[in-house]
Design brief:
The protein has helices spanning 4-16, 38-48, 63-69, 75-84, 101-104, 118-127, 147-153, 192-195, 231-235, 267-283, 300-312; strands at residues 21-23, 30-34, 57-59, 89-94, 109-113, 131-132, 159-160, 173-177, 182-186, 225-228, 242-246, 257-260, 289-292. The chain is an alpha/beta fold. The chain binds threonylcarbamoyladenylate and magnesium ion (MG).
């Protein structure tokens, strides 16, 4: 086994050469390239088959890099950063000139975060550049929480660092600052309430303005039918061909297979295990349809339900 420091060093060389590296973050695996090299970033869009209107998040390891990538910072930004970084919060801020347009899909803003994963942080520092990275899956597919999931969808990556299963399991919360506070562009395990300890949630204004480009109604979608297990669907279903992603244990009767995502009704565990359960049923020849137990839409439940709705979108008639 090549040790992890050597792998990170090699991966950093790949990044410097404008190549692509898949690496673990605390949320999901990222497909990284030198964020300041437009040719390298182009390769991400190509490999993922991602439309160019869907902007990338830039990952940094040193807070000084934030200053270089954005037009200005203020006290609020630093309060957010002090509380949540390194961690699964992405800030969308006005970008500086050094950020290539391809990274932001031509937008005047850029999404930035400092991941809470030692391998990711070391890779960024050793690459000596910020790293642009979307989740390491084909566009629209299920996000990867293990290296196996990455290889399944993207077998042709230049280099992969294996850091085991990711510890958060769903993508970062994305927020954008407004005049009145903040808007949430994508929910994650950092909740509205937690961010409200720093600044007010902006419930005013047009939400469309703050809808993130690339945030489509369909996403995280398995290649076989997936539905949220509501009452109607439960009633009309042949459970002998169905796999259930179970949370409370209450719906488990009659299913061909059950994957329990939590042992003690903990929504965090649902987040950690959701994508892995989806991948597992996607690969399972005995399963024709995937059902997922819905949960209450509050706190982390918001983020889970967001992923489930997008996953079922194309499959709901
Ligand atoms: O946890 C995460 O955020 C993971 C890991 C790898 O860090 N990354 C991730 O990236 O989920 P991706 O590309 O799968 O999703 C990023 C989303 C884009 O789809 C886009 O909607 C939003 O972030 N985004 C990026 N830059 C933005 C900007 N300037 N304005 C609005 N939305 C932006
Ligand atoms: Mg993604």
């Amino acid at each position: 086994m090549v040790n992890i420091s050597n792998r990170i060093r090699t991966a950093a060389k790949y990044i410097q050469q404008g190549k692509l590296v898949a690496f673990p973050t605390e949320t999901v695996y990222g497909l990284g390239a030198n964020a300041l090299n437009p040719y390298a970033v182009t390769k991400i869009f190509k490999l993922k088959e991602r439309p160019s209107f869907d902007p990338l998040i830039i990952h940094i390891a040193d807070i000084n890099d934030l200053e270089k990538l954005v037009l200005k910072t203020d006290k609020i930004v630093y309060n957010l950063v002090d509380k949540f970084w390194p961690g699964p919060l992405t800030l969308v801020l006005p970008k500086s000139n050094i950020v290539p347009d391809i990274v932001t899909s031509g937008l005047p803003t850029v999404g930035i975060r400092m991941p809470a994963n030692k391998i990711a942080l070391k890779l960024i520092s050793e690459s000596k550049c910020p790293i642009a990275a979307p989740s390491a899956n084909k566009f629209g597919g299920i996000s990867p929480t293990t290296v196996m999931h990455v290889k399944k969808q993207l077998p042709d990556i230049d280099y992969i660092i294996d850091g085991g299963k990711t510890t958060v399991g769903i993508e970062s919360t994305i927020i954008k600052l407004s005049e009145k506070g903040f808007k949430i562009l994508r929910s994650g395990i950092i909740t509205q309430e937690e961010i409200e300890t720093i600044l007010p949630f902006d419930k005013y204004g047009k939400n469309e303005e703050f809808a993130a480009p690339g945030m489509l109604k369909s996403h995280y979608s398995p290649k076989k039918k997936m539905l949220i297990a509501d009452k109607d669907i439960q009633m009309n279903l042949d459970k002998r061909k169905a796999g259930l992603i179970s949370f409370t244990g209450e719906l488990e009767n009659g299913y061909r297979k059950v994957i329990k995502v939590s042992t003690q009704n903990d929504m965090r565990e649902y987040a950690v295990n959701l994508f892995e359960a989806m991948h597992s049923f996607e690969d399972d020849k005995e399963i024709e349809i995937i059902l997922a137990e819905p949960i209450e839409e509050k706190d982390i439940g918001m983020a889970i339900m967001d992923r489930l709705r997008k996953a079922e979108f194309n499959w709901r008639r």
